Amino acid sequence: MQAPDDQLRRARRYVAQAKRVVVFTGAGISAESGVPTFRGNDATWKGMPAAVASSIGLLERDLATAWAWFDYRRTLLKAVSPNAAHLAVARAETRFAEFLVVTQNVDGLHQKAGSARIIELHGNIWRGRGLRSGRRYDLPEAPLPSLPPRGEGGEPLRPDVVLFGETLPAGAFEEAEQAAARCDVCLVIGASGAVYPAALIPLAARDAGAAVIEVNPEATDLTPRMTLSLRGRAGDIAPRLFED
User: Fold this and answer.
1) How do the domains of the chain map onto residue ranges?
2) Predicted local distance difference test score (pLDDT) of residue 170
3) Superfamily for 5-34+81-122+167-241?
4) Does the predicted TM-score (pTM) go above 0.85?
5) What is the H or E stretch that residue 72 is in?
6) So which residues are the catalytic ones?
7) d(Cα 169, Cα 9) in Å, to the nearest integer?
8) Fewer CB atoms near the end CB (10 Å): N or C, the chain?
9) pLDDT (tens digit, 9 = 90+) per residue, 124-178?
């Protein structure tokens, strides 16, 4: 289903008049690139529910197995490229006085597309973090040669992502919320609105008076609060929002 032309025209007017833009993205934008979402009761890995494999409990019990799960996901991502929506967002970055991508995704596709101003609410699967020091390391190789990977002095690393049972990184949510509260337009692309506290970001923009424009093939928990809801694929609609 395509977004009606009148809705698109209204959305483009909001974007064209904006000086400060926040783009809030969820799993839907990356699913169009072929990134598995690992959602639902049927999402398993080696007989283990994906939610358990991605939990702080497993990491604390068995770091090597937790890494095996994330390295499997990293290996799948090696063949994945940004789609038209990621690329359109990256190209738009320099057009506005303030522009920020706030993503729930850990796949790094916004960076791969060329975006530089990003808050990763849930971390990045291509990084590791020291268990003791908290120091971050880029880990571009997949699969990794040994699990768990180690940093300086042999310190074991953990995936630099937010696991089930953990809170968001200190300061990330607050910075995103502040940007949302001062933006003119917030684009909500491929987000279900079911993951909290991340889903509060577009609501902060709406409560502060911004135009909040949803791009999603289906209605979501956020739809009733949106200024406009455009039905369709992110890769079809997002590039048109930034057309001159």
Assistant:
1) 5-34+81-122+167-241, 44-78+129-161
2) 82
3) TPP-binding domain (3.40.50.1220)
4) yes
5) helix 63-77
6) 122
7) 37
8) C
9) 999 999 999 999 999 999 999 999 999 999 999 999 999 999 999 889 999 999 9
